[in-house]
Amino acid sequence: MKWLVVLSALVAFSECLHKMPLIKGKTARQTLKEKGLWEEYRKRHPYSPMVKFTQTGTESMTNDADLSYYGVISIGTPPQSFTVIFDSGSSNLWVPSAYCSSQACNNHNKFKPQLSSSFKWNGESLSIQYGTGSMTGYLGSDTVEVGGISVANQVFGLSQSEAPFMASMQADGILGLAFQSIASDNVVPVFDNMIKQGLVSQPQFSVYLSGNEAQGSEVVFGGTDSSHYTGQITWIPLSSATYWQISMDSVTINGQTVACSGGCQAIIDTGTSVIVGPTNDINNINSWVGASTDQYGDSTVNCQNIQSMPSVTFTLNGHAFTVPASAYVSQSYYGCNTGFGQGGSSQLWILGDVFIREYYTVFDVQAQYIGLAKSV
């Protein structure tokens, strides 16, 4: 009888978790390289990762050409489907609309308000600034379905124009998972509405990113999935509940401090593909691991050297998290690149997908903590 009770409890608990499968697709960089357009593209649209985190009253993003994880959501009655990037570094949901004529909208799914019986315009405009352009549009509300959860009256953006780089991305739009305090027009984020509407059992979502596999990655709403990590979860308090920002003590290689000397701030961001830091610190890390950096900030290594390259350790709130070379070097037909990106003069760090693939990440909205555990 005891085991039956335990089993029933486990079944009940598992039913409280809502899993959103993520697809690891082709990146914009890969698409552009295949078309022979990458060199021209990055000259015209330089990567400006820190623009996303400059608060100017509008939510900012940048053209990250290496994002590859997308999930499918639906909006409206009957539902219209869209692929979106689940972005813990922004707070708004937006998708292309039928009123958008930009090239980026023409090769993506567009939301058609007139086909949804539950759609309502709210009369406000929306502007999201990018590193090399912007998205402009309008706000409306409708039922949004994410991972089996139907969120009623969710306010979202319908784009009227989009920055050129979106044309080369597989995702149609963005679903922000940061805090309402940085949302454009103070829109309530999707996960906040899940909590308010009693749709999740815990005010947590967690992210698992698989490595080279096309499938297996997922966002879990309402808790954690222990099958994706090993050992205990280490909890780190947020230093700022705007983005998912925490304190970082140092970055070390072979016991030597190579960056973030004296401490710095870092943001855990599923919407950035690499690890970004101040340009001088990143150049130092790349030098330590034997990489050469070109004029665009791309750092390459000899693919045959990966086995002998050192691990890089990020100490967060007194806890060490080590990323091996096999995790921070990406290998493709075109060669091997390190996953360390230059962030200019900003002292802020972004721990993006390169870090999150190594560490299962739990985002606790209510307690305002980040949880990290070794991914399996």
TrEMBL record:
> Disulfide pairs?
100-105, 260-264, 303-336
- Pfam family, any one: Asp
Q: Does the keyword Transcription regulation apply?
A: no
Work out whether the entry's keyword set contains Disulfide bond. Answer: yes
GO MF term (any one): aspartic-type endopeptidase activity
Q: What does the record list as GO biological process?
A: digestion; proteolysis
Q: What is its EC number?
A: 3.4.23.1
Q: Which domain of life is it from?
A: Eukaryota
Q: Keywords on this record?
A: Aspartyl protease, Digestion, Disulfide bond, Hydrolase, Protease, Signal
Q: Which residues form the signal peptide?
A: 1-16
Q: Domain (Peptidase A1): give its ranges.
A: 69-373
> Which residues constitute the catalytic centre?
87, 269
- Give the main EC class: hydrolase
The similarity comment for this entry is: Belongs to the peptidase A1 family.
Role according to the record: Shows particularly broad specificity; although bonds involving phenylalanine and leucine are preferred, many others are also cleaved to some extent.
Record's protein name = pepsin A
